[in-house]
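S.,

Sequence below, as promised.
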Amino acid sequence: MLEHIRFDAEGLHLLDQRVLPSTRRWIRCQSALEAATAITEMVIRGAPAIGITAAYGLALEVRVGGDLDRAADVLLASRPTAVNLRWAVERIGALEPVDMESAAIALHEEDIAINKALGAHGAALLKDNATVYTHCNAGALATGGWGTALGVIRSAAASGGVAKVFAGETRPYLQGARLTAFELDEDGIPVTLVTDSTAATVLASGEVDAVIVGADRVAANGDAANKIGTLGLAILAKHYNVPFYIAVPMSTIDLRCPIGADIPIEERAASEVRGHAGVLWAADVPVYNPAFDVTPAELITGWITENGLWEPAQ
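The prediction came back faster than expected:
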């Protein structure tokens, strides 16, 4: 399991996911502002990992004697869609400053245990030697460790339950190509990378037994916000009668958010669509670049959590 978040006396160290898999570079944060910048600039991404980073950000602010209320506001503004960010800031922010560091460490350790429990529940849903399709990156890199959607795949693979994984490249930021394929290959789990536009062909082949993805926020009615492209994948799965699962910790389920339409959707810079890593390939025209879309509950077969399958409010 790839280490990507480390907290010690020198600060919070984050494996820079912007340059993976070609380069392994660590970024050090020593304040809440630096942690928030790392979240905004996608050094770290994935709902649980963002929450953990925010928790450590508050602990860092205690170290430097900063304004904790202001630090919380800065962290909450760093990315709006992932509810784990607010959950972690509220949980750690409610404590006395002296307790924040140990609580942030405990939250990180708890997330790994939650992911492993979630993975075991999800693995039980898959038949032996299953072929799974996944989108974006919901692995160790997106969490405290182990992963949500990839946690299910890892747990199933450990007992022979996964024969093959299709990973969609996940335009425009290429989390599937750069991160998911990298993680699975590092673990020795057979993975085939496909373009997002190949998903229909792959599901039409009848080879895929289940689609498993993560989410950044699940509304009380079960609607789920996940990386852009998830909605189209869910529609395809429904058409081809392939089970479509959302794998999330309970902290990602926002009971204060009634329906998916209430989830704020982050829109990111046009430069992410026009090119990548400094290489531009698109015409200089207006760009619409929402980071997430919302999949309606009726397209979702089940919501896998650390407590087993969750049922949305009716």
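The chain is about 35% helix and 20% strand.

Coffee later?
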